[in-house]
Amino acid sequence: MTAVIGGIVAQEVLKAVSGKFHPIYQYFFFDATETVPESLPEADAQPVCFLLAMSSRLTLFFSFFFQIGSRYDAQIAVFGKTFQDKLANTREFLVGAGAIGCEMLKNWAMIGLGSGPTGHIYITDMDTIERSNLSRQFLFRNKDVGHFKAAAAAGAVTLLNPDLQGKIKFFQEKVGAETERTSWALLFFKYIFTLQWVGEKKELFNDAFFESLHGVTNALDNVDARKYVDRRCVYYRKPLLESGTLGTKGNTQVVLPYLTESYSSSQDPPEKSFPSCTIKNFPYAIEHTIQWSRDLFEGLFKNQAENVNAYLSKPNYAQEILKQNGAVRSRVFFFFSPFFSFP
Amino acid sequence: MQWARQQFQNLFSNSIQQLITAFPPDALTSEKMPFWSGTKRCPTPILFDASNPTHLDFIIACANLYAFNFGLKGETSPEYFVKVLENIVVAEFVPKSNVRIQVNENENVQENIGMLCFAF
Hints:
The complex is a heterodimer of chains A (343) and B (120). Chain A is of the alpha/beta class. Chain A has helices spanning 2-18, 42-53, 56-63, 73-79, 81-88, 99-111, 149-160, 184-194, 207-212, 223-236, 276-280, 286-313, 317-323, 326-340; strands spanning 91-95, 120-124, 168-171, 215-218, 240-246, 249-255. The model of chain B is unreliable at 108-120 (pLDDT under 50). Classes of the chains: A alpha/beta (343), B mainly alpha (120). Chain A binds chain B through residues 275-278, 280-284, 296-297, 300-301, 304-305, 330, 334-335, 337-338, 341, and chain B through 3, 7, 11, 19, 39-41, 62, 65-66, 68-69, 101-105, 107, 112, 115-116, 118-120.
């Protein structure tokens, strides 16, 4: 909730200093009552029920008496101690430490996720930090450029919340088929064929690793990796929090075993294409002219050459084309015309 | 370069001229409304001008890409291009009468005849 309000305030500040875009007008209402549990565990029930009976101002006042002197007191006042303990003892795996990964990790550090005795945070990101990352991946500083993202991010959030000292493990490995456990038999065959032992070293995200987790969070930059992690989460029945950004737009999806569909169950709709006559004869937006140029480039410099090479390498190419539909046929023969007219 | 120059002519001049031959700027639709209205914007053909950097850039890029297709060594000096372009003659545009242009998306027209006279 603090992160949401902070984000909105930051956006308003940007609007104010840049003079661009309209500030929020009238009231902006935000609540997150759905995060408050309907029933509380016994241990927490008494003080919280008592507090809820008070007016909000009194609640603030009285919550003072229930402080246990930890940095999570405000959270405990709302959600209860049991919930806080559960958070602290969560073992979560963050895949990717880029823009979303940094935000995520900061939020986790602030709520104390993984800071308890059995809690743990695992981060992996195969990339190193580039200067262009600094503007939005705020856990990284100038001195971190060139270092691995996961390591730098882990160090930065440990400073934000010292409770996480020794609670974060970071990797620079890609999450993919090559880093999951391969059977001994397969490894043995690989060894025989390649004479290279590619054994244990790469077995980072194996059965034991996934079994030990409570949940996985995706902060990835490509669909293939998302699908891979999704498959793994389905296999191990782990909840998955999926996220993505595109320009100013964002997307999240919560995947819970036995409750929701998985990430790969749904697919983005294909990108909108323009009618060909608009592109060709009646463009009215810069996107249309770009599409036209792209099509032209493809036709002139790629398809032409490919067709010629196919004609030269496949003896029956011309006959095959003749059997195809008219559009392709005329295109191919049309492209051939310049070559036939050479002296 | 000859090819690139002809491409320029076909794409930005001839096809546009063909289009406005079929639909002159003041053409009316069957409903007596101006044809070039709404999202349809009446196009203007471009006369090639070697001193216009955009025109010249097109020719240089086009010629070099085409040269690459055939494994020819490229040439990027603008002065050289301007010199050669002076001697390239492009065919005069003659509007074709047998061309039908697809106006709507769902209107299926055999439109290859005129528009496809691109290369030579």
